[in-house]
Structures are given as structure tokens and as C-alpha cells.
TrEMBL record:
<dbReference type="Pfam" id="PF01490">
    <property type="entry name" value="Aa_trans"/>
</dbReference>
<feature type="transmembrane region" description="Helical">
    <location>
        <begin position="395"/>
        <end position="418"/>
    </location>
</feature>
<feature type="transmembrane region" description="Helical">
    <location>
        <begin position="244"/>
        <end position="263"/>
    </location>
</feature>
<keyword id="KW-1133">Transmembrane helix</keyword>
<keyword id="KW-0812">Transmembrane</keyword>
<feature type="transmembrane region" description="Helical">
    <location>
        <begin position="50"/>
        <end position="70"/>
    </location>
</feature>
<feature type="transmembrane region" description="Helical">
    <location>
        <begin position="76"/>
        <end position="97"/>
    </location>
</feature>
<feature type="region of interest" description="Disordered">
    <location>
        <begin position="1"/>
        <end position="25"/>
    </location>
</feature>
<keyword id="KW-0813">Transport</keyword>
<feature type="transmembrane region" description="Helical">
    <location>
        <begin position="332"/>
        <end position="349"/>
    </location>
</feature>
<feature type="transmembrane region" description="Helical">
    <location>
        <begin position="283"/>
        <end position="302"/>
    </location>
</feature>
<keyword id="KW-0472">Membrane</keyword>
<feature type="transmembrane region" description="Helical">
    <location>
        <begin position="201"/>
        <end position="224"/>
    </location>
</feature>
<feature type="transmembrane region" description="Helical">
    <location>
        <begin position="167"/>
        <end position="189"/>
    </location>
</feature>
<dbReference type="InterPro" id="IPR013057">
    <property type="entry name" value="AA_transpt_TM"/>
</dbReference>
<protein>
    <recommendedName>
        <fullName>Amino acid transporter transmembrane domain-containing protein</fullName>
    </recommendedName>
</protein>
<dbReference type="GO" id="GO:0015179">
    <property type="term" value="F:L-amino acid transmembrane transporter activity"/>
</dbReference>
Amino acid sequence: MTIVSTAPKTERKKSRKNKAIVNENAPLLPKTQESDAGFDDFNGASFSGAVFNLSTTIIGAGIMALPATLRELGMLPGLAFIVFMALLTEKSIEFLIRFTRAGKAVSYGGLMGDSFGKYGKALVQLCVIINNIGVLIVYMIIIGDVLSGTSASGEHHSGILEGWFGAHWWTGRTFIVLFTTLAIFLPLASFKRIDSLRFTSALSVALAVVFLVIAVGISVVKVISGGIAMPKLFPAIPDVTSFFNLFTVVPVFVTAYICHYNVHSIDNELEDSSQMQGVVRTALGLCSSVYLLISFFGYLLFGEGTLDDVLANFDTDLGIPFSTVLNDAVRLSYAAHLMLVFPVVFYPLRLNIDGLLFPSSRPLVLDNFRFATVTVGLIGVIFLGANFIPSIWDAFQFTGATAAVCLGFIFPAAITLRDRYNIATKTDKILSVLMIVLAVFSNIVAIYSDAYALIKQNKGSRASN
């Protein structure tokens, strides 16, 4: 006999919310009914709000580096790999959700702790810290490139403000990034619940679509006018070194889809937790469509001249009417998008570093001094990193080849292979092994290729001197 609950819907919502709050594995959330007094008016996040927050987590700086991966791989393999990574990401998140339900965990760290103990939990927290700091540094670098300017391959690309007003101290990278940090990042990072960012997340997705529509329109006009050459469909591999260099794009693909660290935060606040898998599929479908379109049209538009950060390409004459206006619209829309993505990625970073440093302290939301100190300290570290790391490709290679691949594939696969609750199928375990092998092999080769290229570049520089 099936028993149907007769409890009012609002009571079921409240019961679910309180259950998440009292779990000791959620360090940022209140743990007692008394401490939850300030949150009683929150009945759960909506499906659309969850989709926007997860989509915003996914569509960050990765979209800007994806056209450059097609430059390395060729059009067809590059587009195919984007789809493959989306499917692999969906499966890895499905593993997380399934074992989260079985173990009643409410955080990624709690889930790893359930399978591998306190060291597993600490390892996840450390990887989230490394990955998210790297990603947020990338955001600041891109915003600085767009508004102030950047130099690549010996050529200077003017930023929007530099182009409008000329080179001044207040159009320089340091001042622009500092002003953005104080005026935008700090206020948005002060929210204590991720659902509070649902409206800025919706706006950030809309801005990414605006960027995409303009880029597609420019490409279509140039194709019709005959101003675009046939793109490279497959990679050119004249030697073994060129073959291994293809693997340097893997960390970029991995980083582009990493959102696993926010899955539990979004799930905990969702009005109906059974909708979480639908939220994941909807968000991945939306983001994959955007990735495919911007990668295709970005590479089609700039060809072999596509830069590591494609936004930097939008500072030259595109050969169509209103070129300057369209360039500025593209860059401004995406810079604004990243400003709104920042707090969504910052939220789990603060949660995990607090859980790692203060595991036995009272919830962060109840300690305003600790909340402010952790927030300001983290943003300060990110600001310094953005001013000392020269390229988004360098940052992507580091985070994508280390922490991101662990969070996205190795940890979910390890949890599945551990199978503490005997719920993994044989197919799940085979896929998990393949996931780990692919992740480890690809990233070892990527790290080797990066190191080899760096050593070769240094030797060339010394020889020229």
C-alpha cells in the first residue's frame, strides 16, 4: 500500500529545510532550530532559480577560452569534445546526487567524508579552495583585459576605457580591478544564502546570451559578405610534440564544466529536492548550447588568430558597419556577466575554507566578524593573484589540471567505486574507472606539455639574448 502524506505542503517544505540545517556537515548553515530564526521566511528555492544559479556557476570564464581550443583541435573534434564533456559531467553529478541521497549528506565534503573519512573531506575542501581561487582570479584577469587592455604575442590590445579615454592611471588594470572589487564583488559576496543571488544569476545568463547573439550576428554577416576563410576542421599534427600539445586543451574543457562544488548548496535550498537532477540536466543543456555556438562562431570569426581569451580579439576592425560599437557591446556584456558570476563561485569557496580552518566553530552565518574576515581575506588574495598572473590560459592550465579534474571526475568516480551503500551498478563502476583513467592520463600529458613548452620558451629567450 502506498502511503500519501497528508501534511500541508508548507510543513513538508519546512521539515526538509530544517533537516538540512541541523546536519553537522553544513558548516555555513545554522545547526539548530533556534539559530534558524532568521531564516523562517525562506520556504525553498524555485526550479528556475536553481537552474540560473547552476548555469551561472558553469558559464564563467571557460567560455572565453573555448574558441582557442578549436584553434588547437580543429572545428569538428573541438565541438565533439564539448558535447562529450557535457555528458561526462552530467554522469559525474548524477553519481554525487545518488550517493548524497543514500548517505544523507548535505555538502560535497560531507559526502567524501562519508566515504573516505576526515582526510577525504579535507581533500575536497582543499580542492574547492584551489579551484575556485584560480577561477576567480581568471574572472578578474578577464575584467582587467576587457576594461583596461592586455598584451598578447607582443601586440597590445586596448581595453574599453583605454580606447574611450586614453591611457591614464584610472584606466589602468590595477585601479579598474580594485574599483570593481570594492564596488561590486564585496557587496555581492556579502549574501549568506546562495538563493539570494538568483536574480543576479538570471541577469548574468542573459548577458552571456547577449554576448553570444552579437558574436553570432557578426559571424553571419561576415560569412554572407565572404569575409571569412574556411576554418581548420582537424588538427595539424606534423610531429609527436604537436600530438601531445593537443592535450593541453583538456584542462580548459574540464574547467568549463566544473560546477560540482555548488551542487549541494543549491540542492540544500531547493524547494523540492527531487527536481535536482532536472536542474542539472537543464543547466548543462543550456550551457552546452551556449558553449557550442560561441566556440563555433568565435573560431569561425577569428580563425588561427583566435587568442587564448577571445574577448581580446574584439578590439579590431571587424570589417562590418558599426564595428567599434559591436566590439564594445560584446566586451561590456561579458565583463558584466563575469562580475555577476563572481559571488556564485565565491559562495562555496568561503564555505569550504571556513569548514577547513574552523571545523568546530559555530556556523559562519552566526559569526559576523568571522564572516567578514574570511570574505575580505579571500577577496584580497584573489585581487593580488589577478595582478600577478599574466594570462587566463596559465590559470586554466593550473586549476584545470589539478583541483578541477579531481572535483569534476576523480572524486565522484572514487565515491562510486567505494560504493559504501552498495547502490552502484557494474556499468557505473566501469564508467568510473574510465573516468579516472581519462582524467589522470590527459592531465599528466597536459602538465608535461605545458612544462616542456615553458622550458623550450625559456631556452629560446636565453639563446636570443
